[in-house]
Amino acid sequence: MGLFDRFRRQPAGGPAGMRARLEGAMSRRRLRGWNPPLENVNALVASGGPKLLARARELVVTNGYAANACEAFAANLVGDGIKPSSLIDDAELRDQVQRLWLAWTDEADADGLTDFYGLQAMVAREMFVAGECFVRFRPRRAEDGLLVPLQLQLLQSEMLPFEKTETAANGNRIRCGIEFDAIGRRVAYHFRRRHPGDSTDQGAVIPETVRVPANDVLHIYRALDAGQIRGLPHVAPAMVRLFLLDQYDDAELDRKKTAAMFAGFITKTAPEEPMMGEAEADLDGAAIASLEPGTMQVLLPGEDVKFSSPADVGGGYEAFQYRTLLAVSASLGLPYHLVTGDVRQANYSSLRAELVEFRRRIGQLQHGVIAHQLCRPIWRRWLETAALSGALDIGDPTGARPVQWIPPRWDWVDPLKDIQAQVLAMEAGITSRRKVVEATGYDVEEVDRENAADARRVADLGLTYRTSPGETQGARATPSRRPEPGDAGKDGGDDTEQE
After folding, report:
1. 55: number of CA atoms within 13 Å, CB side?
2. For residues 382 and 376, what is the distance between their CA atoms, to the nearest angstrom?
3. Where are the domains of the chain?
4. Residue 96 DSSP SS3
5. Given 65, 71, 243, 285, which is the most exposed site by the fewest CB atoms within 10 A?
């Protein structure tokens, strides 16, 4: 057996297969210039974080696609709010907790600009732009007149200096503004007293920092790597393409504008002869001629007119834009139509396919970041504060902690088909009515109370509607089908199987 035969008969896990798997580590001609540094994500964030953050903020303000993607990201991540549904067994206490929470959400913002669910939307936008957001608990006095003496203050990423990496006086390590103890737990955040880019807030040239205990701060960010301590902008992978595409569009628009300003060029036999429609000379001394609608001009002997015919952008301009924006959408993890608003090439199947994948990713962020890092700690702190202030008579607030956070409902392309599918799933026992109702973004107990109240009001007034709650309980949507043997002996309103 020759050497070639022995090499060809080697198993896939042999040396040849191993070399194929390690091809990315080779230093051959094609990969000779690919030598990335082996740096930790925290070192990269510490060195490039401030510039990356500044560019991301400018891009979202000045670039239409980035601004639209930011709003789409926030709208799908939190919508009109990720809302709690208490799991307390005592129905009366559960209703009391839910009502007090709903009333407190209007007082949650320390700046008084929005409610608790508006703060969620602001956190979502900060995650897109800066990759992180800080929420500080602000306890209030009883004389402040709040239902629960607690408010929330949002702090931007710039308030925690990336460059503050040192050893504290107590021996703890400070990394990118975050203080860690000997076993790696977060014990404090060293925030600036003033925003470094706010020129309206007069203060020191280099704002001093203040130490805030970690128990009073929530750090909301998505960790992409193990051990990552600061967030990265969600828009970061698409920033370069968006910036260069914006420059290209501006240059193309300016080129077309300049070309359109020149209607034509006139050649004269003698410079001193006046041109048709000649006006005063411009600042450079060159004569400019203008035309008016309906002008009939007789040219002098020897004069000639050549009209401008600027080059078009070409047939590949739109295709180039489409492919570039597809790459931008993939970098952002957002569907193409949410970034651009372009649905010309979309249909029901394509829209649903990309929305299913996109909503899987959004579901990860909703449950793993927003609910876990933001909503649950606020719920626990709010219950403790409400119990200590006497707003809730619950004794130990630990028993009232169980809660389910309900994300906003998804609006599908064809809601009728989805509702029919949900009804069939409930009838088959695949899912429960609670889960179906919660998928719409509502609390099932609140829906049941409203249905009961509607049914009582309809009965008291002697009204009858096709959609009356008392008439539709247990009703189901059955798709049309052909009659089958045995249907004649069954009640028309019941198609259950008989044994």
Report:
1. 18
2. 10
3. 41-237, 414-478
4. helix
5. 285
The dihedrals phi and psi of 220, each to the nearest 5 degrees, come to -100, 110
Greatest distance between any 2 Cα atoms in the chain: 109
How far the first Cα of the chain sits from its last, in Å, is 72
d(CA 93, CA 86) in angstroms, rounded, equals 10
Given the structure tokens 């070409």, which residue do they identify?
Answer: 314
* Cβ contacts of 265 within 8 Å, gap of 6 or more: 305, 306, 308
| Cβ–Cβ under 8 Å, residues 381 and 137 | yes
- 370 CB-contact burial (10 Å; exposed 0-12 / middle 13-18 / buried 19+): buried
Task: Report DSSP letters for 174-229, one per residue.
Answer: EETTEEE-TTS-EEEEEEESS-TT-TTS---SS--EEEEEGGGEEEEE---STT--
Write out pLDDT tens, residues 133-145. Answer: 999 999 999 899 9
Mean pLDDT in residue range 271-275: 55
| For residues 255-265, average pLDDT | 73
Phi, psi of 280 (to 5 degrees): -70, 155
Distance (Å) of CA 76 to CA 57, 79, 218, 369, 404: 20, 5, 22, 14, 19
Query: Which of 329, 377, 400 minimizes the C-alpha distance to 95?
Result: 400
For 55-71, what is each residue's pLDDT tens digit? 999 999 999 999 999 99
Question: Using an 8 Å Cβ cutoff, are 128 and 235 in contact?
Answer: yes
How many CB atoms neighbour CB 245 within 10 A? Answer: 19
